[in-house]
Design a protein that fits this description.
The protein is 0% helix and 19% strand. The strands form two sheets. The protein has a seven-stranded parallel β-sheet, with no helix packed on it. The chain is mostly beta strands and 188 residues long. It is elongated, with a radius of gyration of 17 Å. The protein has no helices and eleven strands. The protein has a domain of 95 residues: E3 ubiquitin-protein ligase SopA (Pectate Lyase C-like).
Length: 188
């Protein structure tokens, strides 16, 4: 297996050249287009992706251990296909629309200034996660553990407290209306 450490990879276009299989540790990926690429079985540890497009990339058995994404486009990814061991993710100013985190455990995840339209968090464990200034319109929360998570600055979410664990989670007004949506009540 190839091993890459402390490298900066810039302007990679996956249709011209695929990312080499192996393990990437403490690497930075900048201004790269990895959309529709096959990232299966690649290990990313302590890596950062900046201004990259990873939309519709294949993530089967990929590992993301302490990985940060900044200003990335990440449409339609299936994180449930990843290697779950050591999974630790942070997103800032990313577009994660139609992405799936189905049935995975990502405690302490950070989502900041990101768009998560119609993202699937069904059966996900997201305890102590932070959703800071995120658009969660149409995001799906069913049997999701959101205990101790922070939604105070996020908006457009609909979370049913009867089918999700929300103990000690933080919400603010008017976002809290997203907890009451199913009752079709009007609050003035």
């Amino acid at each position: 297996m190839n091993y890459f450490e402390d490298k900066t990879i810039r302007n990679l276009v996956a249709k011209d050249k695929n990312l080499d299989k192996g393990e990437y540790e403490n690497c930075i990926f900048e201004n790269s287009d990895l959309s529709n690429s096959d990232l299966s079985e690649i290990v990313f540890s302590d890596c950062t992706f900046k201004v990259c497009n990873l939309s519709l990339a294949t993530l089967k058995k990929s590992a993301f251990r302490n990985v940060k994404f900044r200003d990335c486009k990440m449409l339609g990814l299936h994180f449930e296909e990843c290697n779950q061991f050591g999974l630790e993710l942070e997103f800032e100013s990313c577009i994660l629309n139609h992405t799936s985190f189905f049935n995975i455990k990502i405690n302490n995840a950070n989502f900041k200034n990101s768009t998560l339209i119609e993202t699937d968090f069904t059966e996900c464990i997201l305890t102590k996660s932070i959703f800071e200034n995120c658009n969660l319109s149409g995001a799906k929360f069913e049997n999701t553990n959101l205990e101790h998570s922070d939604f105070r600055t996020s908006f457009s979410y609909k979370i049913d407290p009867e089918i999700n664990l929300v103990s000690k989670a933080k919400f603010s007004f008017p976002g809290i209306l997203g907890l009451l949506h199913k009752y079709d009540i009007h609050i003035e």
